[in-house]
Amino acid sequence: MIRYRLLLTFLFILLNPDQGYSQQKASYKQAEILWDTWGIPHIYAKNEESLFYAYGWAQAQNHGDLVLKLYGQARGKGAEYWGEKYAESDRWVLLNDIFERAGEWNVKQKPAMRKNLDAFAKGINDYAKENPGKISEEVRAVLPVSAQDVIANVQRVTHFVFLAPSSKVAAALAAQGEKNGSNAWAVGPKKSASGNTLLLTNPHLPWTDLYTYFEAQLVAPGINAYGISRMGFPVLTMAFNDVAGYSQTVNTNDGQDFFELKEKDGGYLWDGKVTPFETKEKILKIKQPDGTLSEEKMVARRSIHGPVVSEKGGRTIAMKIAGLDQYGIFEQYLEMCKARDFEAFNAAVSKLQIPMYTLMFADNQGNIFNLFNGEVPMRPKGDWKFWSGIVPGDTSATLWTKTHPYKDLPKVLNPTTGWLQNTNEPPWTATWPIVNEPADFPSYIAPPLSMSFRTIGSVKMLMNAEKITLDDFIAMKLSTKMELADHILDDLIAAAGSSENVESKEAAKVLASWDRQTETTSKGAFLFDQFVRKWVGGAGKLGTLGTESTMFATPWIPSDPVNTPKGIADKDWAVKALAETALEVKQKYGVVDVPWGDVFRFRIGDVDVPGNGGSGFMGVFRTMTLTPTNDGKFAPSHGETYVAAIEFSKPLKAKALTSYGNASQPGSKHHSDQLPLLSQKKLRPVWFTRKEAEANLEEKTVFK
Asked: What are the boundaries of the signal sequence (predicted)?
């Protein structure tokens, strides 16, 4: 009998070579993908391995070229595969040991997560193997990929693009800050018309490359999560289930510090003694136009702080980053997706495996929660301004070795206001009046209290709203109002109207009749937008338009947070800038009151529709960045990428939109199919149940 069973087993394997000698392959092929008519995968799996496998396959089907390009860069081999364009990125990856550390993180994963990551990579490889014509030839050199590639991509994007990008070296040397964008709201029963909580997820980032989001639903025992992940990530990074959900925004957590070293005798001074650098030679390969490879030798030096990241201008700068030993980011995100109440979510986020981002949570039990999440260094001295620049690195008096525990972080649970918000501001404005007073926290934990114009608009909408329905919630979210106009337009119109300049008078009439919105039909919006850019000294200086700017007659006052700043300090310059702007607009477009949507377009491929929304610096909550195009118009290269508005009712109600579609593979119709809805300011219904997905089915992928 035993011999008979062995013979049957041998014959089965012989006739079914793909089954192999283990049960692993069968275990991670127990899934199916229901692709809806928007190209969104609804993945149903019998176990987590199968879920991760199918999710890897789904990302390869919709974004295979992009995923493989990101994985190649995370190896530090972008230039080796695709040329000089990727050399600078590779240097940053090699300098920071990203791929090597990813291998260390992989070994440290719990067995179940290690299997999941292997399965995700296997899903990508299998898709590419079974669909060779659907993956571009130029990225096939990256195949096959492994769990180490998956981890390296997540680490590169999270820790070395968002938390510690190479650009921050120059910014710190110049004492400049940076801005990233997202909106998040949570509304509790006190403000909700139905008594159900409401949650808004709304990142706005570049519309390309590693910033791209992928929308999906993941269903397996213990999980039924719908949301988005960054490209090549094996877990959802913003998600909701039928009873709870969370969003995240880029926060002001400073988990990256720069230390200036004093070099001496081949080493650096440390507490009065010369300490040798740790050195490691690395080879950067760069593909040449003729296909050959050149080699660049890099000598990476490290101090006690971390790698030397700059040696310009006679200054030697080393960098220290928090959270590089926190390898549990995948497990934490998965637990956050699974959380069905505040207690479970709180238990997950208290592990602090995600090094940054403000987290916003809501559940169907009436809880709303805001967390200034991050690995925050426990610094021995100094305030925010001190640590935002270059810190002396020759003494242990400035060296931090620990990060703050969860209990130290600013957080708000169920405020009496009934609402929470974040627009990439410090944690002090999570709700208003303030719950977390800056004085109660270390002075280096976040920037001082202030509000951007986008924050003012966000706070104003939530403060003034009463008994918000889901439709109200969506309408508020889609607001295109230019908040800055409420603060300076009356002054500008009065000054320009009394001027003897013909252009300024004509412009004043246009602005007086403008609705202060950036709708496609708004006349005056483009004139105002272009005026503001000239007024502040050029489009490149928009980032200096803070509410604390001396350009306003009255500065921002915390006791009157939504009505200040107010007025224009130098009216003569403002009138001159308006006259020049009006003349330029008229010369270029024929009229001063050109409609916003005639000039600002949503464009992908052959789709070209009127745009709406505008600059976050000018206080537009529906944030879109105007980038010039070759035909004299503008299109967003950055801006609102994804919107999800959720009401935790029974049954769940949710609507969403991914601006640039859910696929980037060449020829996919799902790369631009949502642009018309974006132009019309409409969201799609979220098909959360299997019945809904099957009723809107485009295709099905079954793994056996």
From this structure: none
